[in-house]
């Protein structure tokens, strides 16, 4: 999956995108979800998956990978559970082979050595080996999920790096990126000015650094 928006997202750190979302008054940063390995990055459209606890019927792990387009970022909401996993070695190897961009899990993953060997990008709440079979079941694919107060819909934009994961609604992504790129430029200008002899205080004042993250009218 390649388009101009994804290409722009790939060049902007999640920190600046988060700052832009704050300034515009939109939630998007997914707290508590971190990368399996450092130095990884992915950007793409969201493919959403939601799990729920089993009741009196056996659980299902789901075969949704058959429906995911290459380049997509899979967003799995397992309600933040850390007592059982919803992603393991089979899923990693198939996803990597099919060119899926990466996986973000509000919950746990396992078979982490396999994921590292495959260089497949994963962000999760935790790592834990116990299976989710008969503990959770697939509730919905390509529906709306809410993680840490952030609503994510199929086709929204996901970008993730060593700092974590940010979701940007498709309808505001251009506005967010415009401001995030401005944040990046201002920070670069501040560093350049400080290296040329300015004090940090003067450089920040000169480039209006302290107003960048304020909510805009």
TrEMBL record:
The keyword Magnesium applies. Mg(2+) binds at residue 111. Its EC number is 4.1.1.112, 4.1.3.17. Coiled coil: none annotated. CDD domains: RraA_family. Keywords: Magnesium, Metal-binding. It catalyses: 4-hydroxy-4-methyl-2-oxoglutarate = 2 pyruvate; oxaloacetate + H(+) = pyruvate + CO2. Substrate binds at residues 88-91, 110. GO terms for molecular function: 4-hydroxy-4-methyl-2-oxoglutarate aldolase activity; metal ion binding; oxaloacetate decarboxylase activity. Its cofactor is Mg(2+); a divalent metal cation. Catalyzes the aldol cleavage of 4-hydroxy-4-methyl-2-oxoglutarate (HMG) into 2 molecules of pyruvate. Also contains a secondary oxaloacetate (OAA) decarboxylase activity due to the common pyruvate enolate transition state formed following C-C bond cleavage in the retro-aldol and decarboxylation reactions. Homotrimer. Belongs to the class II aldolase/RraA-like family. This is Putative 4-hydroxy-4-methyl-2-oxoglutarate aldolase. It comes from Rhodococcus opacus.
